[in-house]
Input
Amino acid sequence: MFTMKTPHLFTSESVGEGHPDKVADLISDSILDACLEQDSDSRVACETLVKDDHVVLAGEITTRAKVDYEAIVRNTIREIGYRTAEDDEIFNAERVKVLNFLSEQSPDIAQGVDARAAEGKDGAEQGAGDQGIMFGFASDETPELMPAPIMYAHRIMRELAGARHAGEVPWLRPDSKSQVAVEYGPDGRPARIVNVVLSTQHTEEVSLPEIRQYCTGLVRRVLPDSLLREETEFYINPTGRFVIGGPHGDSGLTGRKIIVDTYGGMGRHGGGAFSGKDCSKVDRSGAYMCRWVAKHVVAAGLANRCELQVAYAIGKASPVSIMIDVDTFGTARVSEEEIIRRVKEIFSFKPADMEAVLGLRRPIFRHSTNYGHFTKPDLPWEKLDPERLEALK
Output
């Protein structure tokens, strides 16, 4: 069992769907899904920038789909909650100006990805869309096999969004952020929640005491009673005012919340963003596959925690680091060498195989955008395969 010499704190954050970076992520993933709905072979790398009343699209898209990019942008903004000037005077679905700088994928990149031979390419298999390193992580401290701090931060954001969409209180606005500090005991398990930070955008007329009373109650109803203490601190809208928010208050950019998207900092990250990229980009498919495998290792009871890494070279089918660096942080019940052997026998990390086993050519990605890519049980990389689980055991 993994043990710590002394108790320690770990803090993770989450952001709401109205946060400017998440607005950008959802627009990018909505464009990806729109392409995949019509053409499952679409190659998409869509970046979005949002600021004030402008939305800028850039990147490379090669697809047979006929997509109205501006309509997708406006519908996505409207869905988030920035519908009219009443919701946000500057940034809203009616007012924004959409600038489109999307072009087709470079043929030099395409020949490396395509499942065909090409001059200078090593073989005819589908290759990785780029070089890079990908990590996957799992921990048994929550039912989702995720670290507790990031899961608790996501829970707060989901609950706040649900309350806003349901009209539970009229003053909630789309932009929001949360942060949860968890103290781990000597046994390496969550012992208590030390503090919670929650900032939510609001309308002009609501008072700060009302905001703080409501949000403190909301936080308490979603976090475990067993970890809350009388001395747990709640910092609700600590600046005292949060009326101007979203892309009006700050710029937003696709891929700028990669730690929120993954493990809240507890598991390592290779640096590649997910949103707006189709699965030929191993930044996304490789990270999803690594998470899937790590989750199987922990669910099979081989370790309480597991982190693994793979690395790719652009155009090559097999990872260049197929050694699959596994770290169980001292929690393994069998040797790490044995875990690596079983993983290599049971799972394939080739791009085409990852696409097939996880069904990544479907329009499922906008569902992954908010509140973590590894927290929703209906996403394919979060579903355990009973046969592979048994094989690992």
In short: Confidence is low (pLDDT under 50) at residues 1-5.
